[in-house]
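INTERNAL AUDIT FORM
Audit reference: QA-55
Scope: verify that the stored structure record matches its stored sequence.
Auditor: D.O.
Record contents follow.
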Amino acid sequence: MDTLKQFVILCLVLFSLGPSRSPVCSLVGDYVVMDLTNESGRYDNGYKEERYNYVLDQFLVEFGPDVAKGNGSLFIQRDWSDGAVNAWAWRIGKEYWLEIPGGMARFYLIKESGFLSTLCHELGHLLGGTPHRNSISYEGQADYYSSMKCMGRMLKRLGYQEKIDGTIHCEGRFCNERYAGILSLTSYYAELEKKPIPSLKTPSTDVVNRTLSSHPSGQCRFDTMIEALKCANKDSFSYIDAFKGACRGVGARPLCWFNPEEFLGHN
């Protein structure tokens, strides 16, 4: 695992690995590594190993069948003692892999909903459709998949009780819980960037000329996941048609990372 992480720097740098292995995609580039030998450290949120393993087991139960539809198998490499606050995804042939260190579940900004959002983002690299390269979905597309296609299913699988308090409105169930996951995870991005926590009141004003394959800014990623909450499209994403499974207008991927004009005429 240590050897793997030495060459996992950015998802799209690793196309020299050969045809049998897809690129390795990470949740973030630079990341915190916690000292988990110090249980009283300020970074430890008190999450329990038993819950960590249970959630990962339930994730395999929920999404293993999705991968199996493509004749693949889903695996999770886990290590509770690993303090890396990051996560990775890759494929080897028909093996679909996630690596989820214990540090990702235990970081002080990460609530369980943020941990679920992380898992869903990494799965989005493997099932999120286009825009992609070598069938590995771009970072923004993995974010879009996360809150639209994945989070609600995991919340239901884990028996969450839906909270309806008007905090946010969305399509489907678990609006507030999905929003809490987005806010938890993007608070970590903000800490890494040394920027304010992303907010509904401060949407990104960036407009890209070319669709971004690497990690967008934390606010842009927040905006992407919020827009995904507004999209009621239940279709699976396509690796050919960039708009299948997505929304246009309300719920569309934001222009801070996605340029729709690149994909017009391909659907």
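Auditor finding: record pair retrieved intact. The chain has seven helices and six strands.
Action required: none
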